[in-house]
Structure formats: C-alpha cells, structure tokens
Design a protein that fits this description.
- This is Cytochrome P450.
- Belongs to the cytochrome P450 family.
- InterPro entries: Cyt_P450 (IPR001128), Cyt_P450_CS (IPR017972), Cyt_P450_E_grp-I (IPR002401), Cyt_P450_sf (IPR036396), Cytochrome_P450_Monoox (IPR050196).
- GO terms for molecular function: heme binding; iron ion binding; monooxygenase activity; oxidoreductase activity, acting on paired donors, with incorporation or reduction of molecular oxygen.
- The protein has about 475 residues and is α+β, with helices and mostly antiparallel strands.
- It has a single domain, classed as Cytochrome p450 (Orthogonal Bundle), CATH 1.10.630.10.
- It is about 50% helix and about 10% strand.
- Strands 1-2-8-5-3 form a 5-stranded mixed beta sheet. A 4-stranded mixed beta sheet has the order 4-12-9-13. It has a two-stranded antiparallel sheet with strand order 6-7.
- Helix 8 packs parallel to helix 18, helix 13 crosses helix 15 and helix 13 crosses helix 18.
- It is globular, with a radius of gyration of 22 Å.
Length: about 475
C-alpha cells in the first residue's frame, strides 16, 4: 500500500460516548474493550478517549516498527508521565541520553554471569521462608496467596538488588503499592485530571502512600551510605557511578528514583506472574502433575540449583505460558513524534499508540487455540514458527525490561520449590477477577488453604477450587 493510499484511510473502531468516547469502558473493563476491539475491527483500531485519540496495534510487524525499527520516533506518553510522582526519573519514565546513561550503569547487575550466584541467593531466601509457609499450612486457615507471594518476592528483590532485608516492610509496602496503583490508574484514565495539590481524598491517599514508600527506599539508601563494605549489588554500582564529564555521582534523589522503580517493578510483576501461574495450574491438573513430577525427577528433595534449570524445561514452559495468558505488564504505550505508517494507515504526529501483550498473546493468527493453556506451545519446534514479537511479556527493543532474565530465573525457581512442597485449595466462592491497573493482578487476591506435600505423594493439583469470574472469562 502506498503512503498516499494509507493517508486517505482512517482506522476503524468503536465510537463510544459522544463526549467521553471509549474512556468509560477503558476505565471499567479495559481487557474486554481492547480484546473485542481487535476481534471486531482488526489489527489497527482507533479509539476516541475523551479529548485524545488512541490507536491499538495488534500485529507483531507493527509492534516491531514502534519498539525497534522506528523506535526513535516514539517515546513514553504524557499519560505514563503521570506516574512521575512515584517513579520520578527512574528507568521506566526517563528518556534520551539520561535514560541511556542510567540503563548503562544498571545493566551489569543483570548480566548472565551473575545469575548463578543470584540463583543460590533466591533458593536460600525461599528456603528461609518455608517455615512461614509451613505454619500457614499447619493452621489450615485461609490466607491470601498473592500477599504471601508479594512478601516472598519482595524479600528476594531487596537482597538481590540492594543487599537489604525488606521482609519487615512487606505489609506496609503492599498496602502502599496497592494504593499507588489504584490512584495512579485513576490519574492515567482521567480525561481532565485535577491538580495534584488539591486536597482531594484520592490525592491525599496517594501522597500518604508515597511517603511510606519513600521512607522505605530512602532507608535503603541511608543504610548503604553508612556501610563500609562494597557488596557488588545494583545499588553499589549506582552509588559508585560517576558522570563522565563532571565526575559527580548520583544524588540521593536520583538513587531514590531508580531504587523505587526497581523495587516496584521487580516485586509486583513477578509476584503477580506466580499468582496467575498457580491459578492456571489449578485449572489444568494434568499440567500441575507434569510439573511436580518433573521437579521431583530432576531435583528430588534437595534444593534446586542454577545447573538444574536447563532440565526443568516443562517448569519454564508453564511460566512462559502463564505470562502469555496473564502478562503482568499488560499494556505498552508510546506517542508518535512524527507521522508514521502502521498497518496500512498513516497515524499523525502526536498519536498515542498502545500495544497490549494481553491481546497480542491471544491473537488467533499467531496462536493456535489462543485461549487455551498449553505450555507445550513453547516447545522449540512450535515456538520457532511464530513471529518474534507475538510474545512480549517484557516488552521489546532497547527499552525491554532490564530485569527480564532475573524475573524468569526467580519465577521458575519459586514455582519449582513451592509447587513441589504445597497444594493450595481456593476458598469456595472467592472471586478471581483480573484487575488491569499499571500491572495485571487478581483484584481480590487469591484466598487459599495450603497443604504440605509429603515425600512420595502422588502429584496432584497445585491449586484446587473455582476459576476466574468475568463476563468474558478466558482460561
């Protein structure tokens, strides 16, 4: 298609409300809005969102153009910048040369050669948490599996990235993070956001939550200033960095922004991915049986090691398939700095484009039986037939999640160790509803009862009980 022909065409899409467009649906049920949009209108969909126009891209070729081939034409949207009160100039929101510098400084902390040592640290921390999980199982009382996974992953994040024990801050951080996600979601979706200085209830809740997070994060930084040993973790690398021109190091505010971004991104997404994985294993007991049998066969009763991971192939495929169906980073947004042609349409400068892994991962042109849970679709011989950008739980291109390798390592080890040791039963009638905020999480958590597996148990369901409830619920 020629550029002129593309210019003459306007992408199809739902009209929505005469004034608000599709903003009410975007606020109330974005997963249904965007999934049905692709099903009804195709791979480029136009949505009026109040005073703005938004374009949804669902073809891997268009995703590749925005995130890789023409990435210099796209930057983070003004909507994403509304997260700045929490994340500041951290890696998620910073742009240009400053982002490149910060990314370059942080990258060594995630290099592959560090992964073996990190794996040992992860398994040690999981083992240290087992008495708490055992006590929950012994009591036989319901608890929120999501909250316990958040606690575990937060402790891992604190030690791996900052050599700091954050377990004591888990409850405060969990409440603050939930408040932040909910309030920032309201800001991002507001057609006319009110000034943050107004003493409105939502603004006050957000400020209070940020103060809690700041206290925790600045406590990490202050503690490191008082230490004389060099731990070699991410925080020590950031604190030792010096500007090539001025020789100055990062201010505490710069350190705060990077630590805040990595703490929130590092524990929220991985914990949610694990929660969705246990839910999917409940719905598919044969997959649960295969996973437990694999872990038992490869590892037995000993602690898994980094060297075991290549043989825990099915465990890895289960985690990959879980992130296909429920990607914690469910939406990627950019704004076009100049006109561009995508999917045969010219999108003008200033256009907001959104790419939804949640929708792309369910595209029937690239995924056979896309709504089904099938870990074996990630076998090499099957995965090799799909476009590279049909699966992007960590984004893609130069701004791909810096911690993707760590997240996969952590997720697979935690999954193997917990699934081998426990069965979980979902409390009857407990609603399981996806909530698409900044991340994709179970709105009401996962209320479960746990049982210890004993050596020699026949592998069974990892999570027993009812499944998700939504008008268009997909397994």
């Amino acid at each position: 298609m020629t550029h002129a022909a593309a210019t003459a065409r306007v992408p199809p899409g739902p009209k929505g409300h005469w004034l608000l467009g599709n903003l009410p649906e975007r606020r109330s049920d974005p997963l249904t809005l965007f999934q049905r949009g692709r099903e009804r209108y195709g791979d480029v969909v136009r949505y009026p969102m109040g005073p703005l126009l938004m374009y949804q891209l669902s073809h891997p070729d268009d995703v590749k153009r925005v995130l890789v081939d023409n990435a210099q034409n796209y930057q983070k949207t003004a909507l994403m910048q509304r997260l700045r009160p929490v994340l500041g100039e951290g890696l998620l929101l910073s742009e240009g040369d400053f982002w490149k510098r910060q990314r370059r400084l942080a990258q060594p902390a995630f290099h592959r050669e560090r992964m073996e040592g990190i794996a040992t640290l992860i398994t040690r921390l999981v083992e240290e948490s087992l008495p708490r999980w055992d006590a929950l199982a012994a009591r036989g009382e319901p608890f929120d599996l999501c909250a316990e996974l958040m606690r575990l992953v937060l402790s891992i994040t604190g030690q791996v990235l900052f050599s700091t024990d954050l377990s004591g801050a888990a409850n405060d951080m969990a409440r603050a993070v939930t408040t932040v996600l909910e309030e920032l979601n309201q800001r991002v979706l507001s057609a006319l956001p009110l000034p943050s200085l107004l003493p409105l209830p939502g603004h006050l809740r957000l400020r209070s939550a940020i103060r809690v997070l700041d206290r925790i994060v600045y406590g990490i930084i202050d503690g490191r200033h008082r230490r004389t040993d060099a731990s070699g973790d991410l925080l020590s690398m950031l604190m030792a960095a010096r500007d090539a021109d001025t020789g100055e190091g990062m201010s505490d505010r710069q350190l705060r922004d990077e630590v805040m971004t990595l703490v929130l991104a590092g524990h929220e997404t991985t914990a949610n991915a694990l929660a969705w994985t246990f839910l999917l294993l409940h719905q598919h007991p044969e997959a649960a049986r295969r996973l437990v049998e694999e872990v038992t066969s490869v590892v037995g009763e000993r602690t898994p090691t980094f060297q075991d991971l290549p043989r825990l192939r099915y465990t890895a495929r289960v985690f990959d398939e879980s992130m296909r169906l429920y990607p914690p980073a469910w939406l990627i947004s950019r704004v076009a700095l100049a006109d561009d042609v995508l999917g045969g349409y010219t999108l003008p400068r200033g256009s907001i484009v959104v790419m939804l892994p949640y929708v792309i991962h369910r595209h029937p042109a690239f995924w056979e039986r896309p709504d089904s849970f099938d870990p074996d679709r990630f076998l090499p011989e099957r995965a090799g037939t799909r476009p590279r950008f049909a699966w992007l739980p960590f984004g893609a291109g130069q701004r791909m999640c810096i911690g993707s390798g760590l997240a996969l390592l952590e997720g697979q080890l935690c999954l193997a160790m917990l699934a081998r040791r426990y069965r979980f039963q979902l409390v009857p009638e407990h609603p399981v509803v996806p909530q698409a905020l900044v991340t994709l999480r179970p709105r009401f958590g996962l209320r479960v009862i746990a049982w210890r597996r004993e050596p020699g148990d026949v592998p069974g369901e990892v999570l027993d009980g009812a499944g998700p409830e939504r008008s268009d619920a997909r397994p």
